[in-house]
Amino acid sequence: MSKTQNIISWIARLIAAVILLQTLFFKFSAAEESVYIFTTVGMEPHGRIGSGIVELIASILLLLPRSVWLGAVMALGTMSGAIFFHLTKLGIEVQGDGGTLFGMAILVALCCLVALWLHRKSIPFINK
To answer: Is the pTM of this model over 0.90?
Structure first.
């Protein structure tokens, strides 16, 4: 990986990890908006807590060079679910947030796609 690609990788990984970690407080503290979201999609409280745990693990894996690909796949999976529910049950705007949560899900997904592409050669079952 070139120096430029390494810098892009770190930027994408940090953006994704920071957003994922920042939202954990709301999930784990049962913040009103988080409870509303998971109640609306029929997954409260298990979906809220479960997705929080997955996002925490994904954030850590994104920051560890040997496991970037796995963290990116995990985060991309959870963000795909978030985007799906925004488009089907929640709407782009949730409780007057102006689409911020939807936008953050899109941003995390894009950052994870970039990281996954840049680290594609480290995926063990693809490069054997």
So the answer is: yes
